[in-house]
Amino acid sequence: MKYLFALLLSCSLLLSAPALADGKEPILIKFSHVVAEDTPKGRGALLFQRLVAERLGGAVKVEVYPNSTLFGDADEMAALQRGEVQMLAPSVSKFEAYTKQLQVFDLPFLFDDLAAVKRFQRRDKSRELLRSMAANNIYGLAFWNNGMKQLSATRELRAPGDAKGLAFRIQSSSVLEAQFAALGAEAKRIPFGESLKALQDGIVQGTENAWSNMTASGFDRAQPFITETNHGSLNYMLISSSSFWQSIPYATRSELEAIVEEVTAQVNRDAEELNRKGREQLLGAGNARLVTLGKEERAAWRAAMQPLWQQYEAEIGADVLRAAQTVNRR
Ligand code: LMR
User: Fold this and answer.
1) What is the residue extent of each domain of the chain?
2) Residue nearest to atom 9 of ligand 1 (CA)
3) DSSP-derived secondary structure for 26-94
4) pLDDT attached to residue 22
5) Coil, strand, or helix at residue 189?
6) pLDDT at position 45
7) Is the C-beta atom of 233 inside 6 A of ligand 1?
8) Which class is domain 14-325?
9) Does the beta carbon of 171 lie inside 6 Å of ligand 1?
């Protein structure tokens, strides 16, 4: 019995162990994500796949699964920890079960624009956050960006009070829940892959997202009003599991990390362009009306949401919050 158990155990280890780079089987990296291919993250995953094939073909093979086709928001992190997928790029809003520090990215109106977010991501405090989930076997490789978030709804949202009584689809984040509570609205945590259906079925009447995601996922089919608030940003952490990443032979891992760096720069360049185009395309389709805010109108949204900074300071850490507050150019 003991021998049978040992045999079964060694067989299962063999099956789950990554192949060595100098063996016949290439190391397989399954990269799963929840958005469309023509988004900053979708394009980044495909570029990573292409560069790996060009530079490490034979040693490493990358398979990309977009649109929650392999795993979705509800199960992708557990799948990474079980070794069923090797790379993900979840929004930083989705890590609160592992660290509260990343909630800094969710604080509304903390960053003036994407350039400020990028400046923060280059700071040491931010780089430390890539290692903040080591105890959970989560290994941060890079920050990828999408764009600034806008609010959409079934009715015109011009003043903060207009959101009162509506239910908004949110990512799995307490800060985002509190953000809508501050408006007298309800928030429902719904995986990204189920968002459009939830909007179409009227389970929620509004949501927030970057232009690129709204367009690529067709949110305008259910959201006739989009208020350009730029109240927050949508950012990702490209992750692997520490155990998988450290198991890759050093030379191969170094090459992969160089590719990650190159792809990160491209994703972050693409983000602004794809959001600008997404905005044009969505508004051009004519299903949704744009609501732009005057200076004082936007200040009212900011005043309604800003109390969250203090509310979450202790959980996030005063040092992280302070580092983030120094990146705006005012
Ligand atoms: C969302 O859930 O709205 C986003 O995190 C989706 C994504 O990955 O861009």
Assistant:
1) 14-325
2) 35
3) PEEEEEE-SS-SSSHHHHHHHHHHHHHHHHHTTTEEEEEE-TTSS--TTTHHHHHHHTS-SEE--BGGG
4) 53
5) strand
6) 98
7) no
8) alpha beta
9) yes
